[in-house]
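Need the bound structure for S-adenosylmethionine, inputs here:
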Amino acid sequence: MWGISNYKSSGEKAVENIADIQEVNRLDQHLHNSFKNKFLIEPSLTRLLVSFQANKTQPIYRWYKYKEAFSASLVQLLLAKYGLTQGKILDPFAGSGTALFAASDIGIHADGIELLPIGQNIIDTRRLLNSEFTGDDIHRLKNWINLKLWKQFEHQLTLPELKITQGAYSPETQTAIEKYLAACEQENPQIQTVLLFALLCILESISYTRKDGQYLRWDYRSGRGSGKKSLNKGNILDFDDAITQKINEIINDLEPPTQQIELFPTHKPQGKIHLYKGSCLEVMPCLPNGSYDAMITSPPYCNRYDYTRTYALELALLGVSAKELTHLRQEMLSCTVENRPKDLLAINQNWQLALSVAENQTLLQAI
Ligand SMILES: C[S@@+](CC[C@H](N)C(=O)[O-])C[C@H]1O[C@@H](n2cnc3c(N)ncnc32)[C@H](O)[C@@H]1O
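Answer from helper R.:
Posting the output first, comments after.
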């Protein structure tokens, strides 16, 4: 809609843009007025509750700080409010799986769909730790931090990187990570999964980068991102300290204090969790009708927020190639801001109604 003709002067275009914005505001006001009586202000839904912040103090949920996550308390509050105590829920944009685990904790089954390998890894590892991890495995993890096994290892594995992650760590940190990866290879698959996950949890804190909105910002010490965009990140954690602390946190959360076990010996039934890996656009049409009692989700905004950039360190470590990264990014965009009605209908004819609602929504079209 902007700058329809190339032959207009910049002054004429500016006037046109102001007129467009005024039209958007008018339509917005109109829509707001039509739904005025439906809006409710719910004071209990504070920023702390709806965002990831509340998870930071919750055992297990605090392991990986998924910035776009909502809190487990919010999910449980909603389930309680709508009286859902059994059955099955769906989260088609599962992220780190908050909705799935919060539902499962109170005995509700949960299916999730997630496109990005980082979210998939978080969910898979938590499921493993919930069910198949044994006392022996915990003992092995304790061994890892007591003996700092990676430090005794001579051999190194090359840390996979992408163009946008080059130079993300100091040379000492990079060597420590590469020794750690090589040492991990000696372990059984379960321990390997948890050790890799622990590394994913600390990557940002030991790197020169910080996740910021829709991209990575680079600390001035990295030599990248000079000028206005460079940042002073403050303390960059030492690899040995950070990984020891993270593995300790995981062990502590998995082993409740003995006193607590004796006082509350109950074993709560947990709901089953299933994760579909891929785009919800492709997966959802294949799900059987009427199989869910509720859907709890937080979709990406309809903008160009690029998760593949924000999570580039993690995706590189997980072995995602540059080509795969572009593909993931395209799959995300085609679900939101770059979706094309023709492609959507090719996936599922039943979306015609939703598409015509969007097409006839004047405010959406004006934007
Ligand atoms: C706002 S986050 C959800 C966070 C989640 N509620 C949590 O608590 O962790 C949105 C998620 O949707 C995922 N996503 C984006 N496009 C997708 C698609 N087409 N199919 C499936 N997942 C997608 C993103 O990778 C991201 O993890």
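Comments: The CA atoms of residues 143 and 161 lie 29 Å apart. The two ends are 8 Å apart (CA to CA).
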